[in-house]
Amino acid sequence: MIRILLKTLILYFSLTTILFSQIISSIDITGNKRISKDSIIVFSELNIGNEYSENLINNSLKRLYETNFFEDINITFNDNKLSIDVIENPIIEKLELIGIKKKSFLEFIQDNIYLKERVSFNEFYLNKDINLIQNILKTNGYYFSTIQTSLIKNDDLNSVKLKIEVNLGEKAKIKKISFIGNKAIKDKKLLEIIASEEHKFWKFVSNKVYLNETLINLDKRLLENYYKNRGFYNVEIVDNFVELNKENSSFNLTYNINAGNKFLIKNLSLTLPDDYLKEDFTNIDKIFDKNINENYSLRFINNILEEIENIASNRLYDFIDAKVEEEIVDGNKLNLNFIVSDSKKYYVERINILGNYSTIEEVIRNKLIVDEGDPLNNLLFNKSINEIKSLNIFKTVNSQIKDGSNDNLKILDITVEEQPTGEISLSAGFGTNGVATGGGINERNFLGKGINLNTNLELTEETIKGQIEYSRPNFAYTDNTLFTSLRSVDNDFLTLYGYETTEIGFSIGTRFEQYENLFFSPELDFLIEDLNTNTTASSQLKKQEGSYTDFYFNYGLDYDLRDASFNTKNGSITNFKQQIPLVSENNEISNTVIYTKYNELIKSSEMVGKASLYLKAINTIDGSDVRVSKRANVPYNRLRGFEKGKVGPVDGSDYIGGNYISTLNLSTNIPGILSSIEILDFNYFIDIGNVWGVDYNSSLDKSKIRSSTGIGLNVLTPVGPLSFSLAQPITKASSDKTESFRFNLGTTF
Prior knowledge:
The chain is an alpha+beta fold. It has six domains: 66 residues, membrane protein fhac (Ubiquitin-like (UB roll), Roll), CATH 3.10.20.310; 77 residues, Ubiquitin-like (UB roll) (Roll); 86 residues, Ubiquitin-like (UB roll); 79 residues, Ubiquitin-like (UB roll) (Roll); 72 residues, membrane protein fhac (Ubiquitin-like (UB roll), Roll); 327 residues, Porin. 18% of the residues lie in helices and 45% in strands. The strands form seven sheets. The chain has a 16-stranded antiparallel barrel. A hairpin with a 4-residue loop joins strand 17 and strand 18.
């Protein structure tokens, strides 16, 4: 009896649930004009047969509002019938963004805002876009900009015409940059370190003189790294703040620095996995021995980590993680333990290029050493980033490694910030060599393809030179650089060398990396030259008067092992160039070798020694005389203390140059000298050189080794760089003309 009763109760509650449950039996849509009923149902994820609940309706409302198609939505449920009544947002019929004249800047903003033509209008997204535009403007120095919007509605079509009007105003100039706190380093040195610059009238082409949040953040990193490279382990850039000068739309920028105390390195150690050979890393131990009790340096740590990666890569330990553990001991000393561990093998799933709104993506991808599908190698990836920076068309290049779709896949994000790449320059200068003027137009990223297009005109007392140069990387997707130039030169060397020439030349060539760090540059060079000598020239020189047509094959080999192309501290670069005549009346063949070695003499001192060897030989294939205009003269910057061109063999009163040149230049910069003024470079040098060989009269050859020593100084002045050299000849020939003091002043504006 009880069993029958229980079955009856279960049946009763089941029938009651069915009869009284709120099941959606139909869905009715009203108020829609553009958006179809089916689309609304899809967006809502509501279906006939769903059990009605408050949670179900709330989730549907959220999904419908997220489409941005609707201004208002009302959902009701009655007698198992669901009704959705909507008011659609108007569609943007026309969008005008005015007030920004620079096309690339305008396109960047248009690409990043949400509201566009044929997109539903929404006040929320309008306010969001206005905030975005204001932030972009501030990033580019427009802190005083204003934005106004106007809206014209068309109720019949449920559309709007939106106008966003931007008044850029003046850029916010940086009037003064100050440093407070425990700096330990002079303000003038800190000003050289940071990217931001004080506004000066001669710097009007620089964007660094305007307040820029990106640059400020970069400044803080640069300052922090600079202090850490000098032992200040606990340095902290506490804050930076700006002070508005409303009367002249400028700011005072202040950095608060807490340097703390210097730290020394007490112990250095290297921890390797058990299956690694200790002898593979003996070079690390040698470096450790030299740096015990030296100042802590962030650069030193990064160099060690890079050296570990290099050794691992060369010894086929392909996938490693290297990190350093730092332990403070004895108050101001550090124990540094470099830990190497096996890393999981990762592959590059995808490489994203971001921020290139005017530069074609292939220009950037052409510089990548790693590719999609390759094993991830941090060393090669970092080299790729440096290659992109070497294009010199981006303000910043940042990278990020993110997780991919699988555990063994990574996504590489490369974000670039573009900068103006076009330059118009006018220059004027004077010095002991006379007056020089010139001008030019240079575009480093022509058509967004990384093409360098350069035109320039140079006027000196002896030379008028006009030139057009074109250089295109990754020509025809070959990874090769194509370069060509057209030049016209008028040289009046009657006083210097006893002759004058008029030249028209054309060249075309390419450059590519043949092997790692070895670059090959073949070139074809066509030249037409008219040569005249002065009335006092020797009979041998007068025989060379006339017109010449030359067609050369030139090639160069560059072996670059420098740690950096600019501000080099260590490494070497070797350059070899040979010129071979294909069609020539004189058949001159020339060979030039330049070897330059750099070495940081004192660690972390920025004191760099430099040695440069220069060798050149020019002869004719058939043993005839080398044309006087092709003879070699010592470059003036390789033998200071002597007048330009007034060294070497002399025919009568004419300095005719030689068949051979050799020079050796030894120099070192001396940081910290004259730090009260803005010194770019203060250096001590020794120059040794000789020019010899006269093919038509060996008696004219003195074969005397020349040498000099002196100091050089470069100063940044309000009107441009001012360079001095004070040199004292040590050895010379009786016919040489000496010049102890030389200066040059000029500017580009």
